[in-house]
Amino acid sequence: MWLKKFVFFIVLAVLGGVLTAVSYFIGSNTVLCRICYPDSECIGLFAQSRQIKKSENRQIFVKNIVEETILGPVEGNIGLKRKNLIVNVFPKEAKLNSVFASGDTVCLDFNKELLLNVSKNIAERAAKSEKKNEGNSSKKNICKFSLNYLILFSIIDSVNLNCRELTRFHISFDGVSYKYIDDFGPTDEELHADYKVLVR
To answer: Distance between CA atoms of 174 and 110, rounded to whole angstroms?
Structure first.
């Protein structure tokens, strides 16, 4: 009987050690990052804490950050005495085609689906904002930025927040750089993180 108990406790100890080692490995394979998303009223970007798979290869780490960003946020109240929600502005078809990082520069190429139907979303949000403020002269239209602008800088600011040495960004879509997106541009030139759009 005592031999069975001894073997039982040995097995438990071994299993406990294995589980601890696995937990440690999983925990050490990720890093806490800040990922930016717009809120439901498009007043700017709000940063959420997310566990991102880390890599010694900076290019792969940037890829992990961007892919996690375009997956969308964990929706929830952002506080600040308002009932704004962080929202997912990325279509499910959005895809990162390629990443190239060298020195302080990053080149990101996405498929065109990243910005599809954004104009419709902007119109819907603007209409909701105007309706919300109708009859209240003390409020102006809450939407401060186009949704395309927030999409681009949710990606750029997310990368820069977690890789401070990366300060210059080039964005293209299916290999093509566009001079203007909405009324914002030139976007075919070097872009930099915009922390003025970051609310918190």
So the answer is: 6
Most confident of 4-13, 28-37, 102-111, 142-151: 102-111
Separation in Å, CA 15 to CA 1, 6, 7, 134: 21, 14, 12, 64
pTM of structure = 0.74
Q: How far apart are CA 62 and CA 58, in angstroms?
A: 6
Domain that holds residue 69: 2-173
* Res. 80: pLDDT tops 70: no
Q: What is the average per-residue pLDDT within 126-130? A: 50
The CA distance from 13 to 8, in Å, is 9
Q: Is residue 191 part of a domain?
A: no
Strand partners, 31: 52
161 occurs within a structural domain:
yes
Q: β-strand 30-38 against 105-110: which pairing, if any?
A: unpaired
Q: How confident is the model at residue 170 (pLDDT cuts 50, 70, 90)?
A: very high
Q: How far is CA 65 from CA 54, 106, 136, 168, in A?
A: 9, 13, 41, 16
Number of domains in the chain: 1
- Does residue 188 sit within a domain? no
| Chain segment 87-108, per-residue pLDDT in tens | 788 888 899 999 999 999 999 9
Q: CA–CA separation, 127 vs 61, rounded Å?
A: 39
Contact between 94 and 151 (Cβ < 8 Å):
no
Answer yes or no: is 138 within a domain.
yes
